[in-house]
Amino acid sequence: MNECRLVIFDCDGVLVDSELITNRVYVAMLNEIGIPVTLEDMFEKFVGRSMDYCWDLVAGMLGRRLPPHLVEEYRVRTTAALQAQLRAVDGIEEVLDALDARQVPYCVASSGTHQKMHTTLGLTGLLPRLAGKLFSVTDVVRSKPAPDVYLHAARAFKVVPSACRVVEDSPTGVAAGVAAGMTVYGYCALTPEWRLAGAGAHHTLSNMRRLPDLLFAPS
Q: Does 1 score more than 70 pLDDT?
């Protein structure tokens, strides 16, 4: 295995503890328009996907075009929920400190937009550490599980994929990292370990503080 030369983090669920917050809002809104989904359904079908993909999936489930107010209402309601409840993932600042101490660069590659990343990372105080290191699905042609956003980040840092380490919390994101030819660490705080391993994660962890030891363990 090549030496770790770049760590690429997903954003939601890996850096910021946003998945439960936003998906509870999503479930409530879909139930309101007659789609009987559960939080478990969200983690199985939606988490890790781009919002364009998710809205297309909702339209298919609804069997007609989306109500015109729905997308904006989701933005307003999730923003309010995040402002009230959002926290950084427990232990992530210690992980970033450890990478800084080793002078290992890191960045973010997300299925969210730049605006969303700036919002969530700003609310949690992480943005100053990650400004200028954000890569979005909106920067590339294909969203996860395609590898595009991960390969885009690696090119920006001039690091070969095999020397990159990806930290993901969804099977979709894990599959994207594997497709990019990178070593993937599955953070299974909310997603069952077997689902991340089944998607191809090379390592799994439920405590983010373990990540530096896993990244730099002797091969």
A: no
> What's CA 54's distance to the chain center, in Å?
14
- Let me know: does 149 contact 139? Beta carbons within 8 Å: yes
- DSSP-assigned letters across all residues of 27-65: HHHHHHTT----HHHHHHHTTTS-HHHHHHHHHHHHTSP
Q: Is 10 a catalytic residue?
A: yes
Interstrand relation of 183-187 and 6-9 (parallel, antiparallel or unpaired): unpaired
Q: Which of 10, 17, 148, 169 is catalytic?
A: 10
pLDDT tens, residue by residue, 196-208: 999 999 999 999 9
Q: Could you tell me the domains of the chain?
A: 6-17+87-215 (3.40.50.1000), 19-85 (1.10.150.240)
Looking at residue 49, its pLDDT comes to: 81
What six digits make up the tokens of 168? 């993901």
pTM: 0.86
Contact 189, 169 (CB under 8 A): yes
Q: Write the pLDDT tens digit of every residue in 123-169.
A: 999 999 999 999 999 999 999 999 999 999 999 999 999 999 999 99
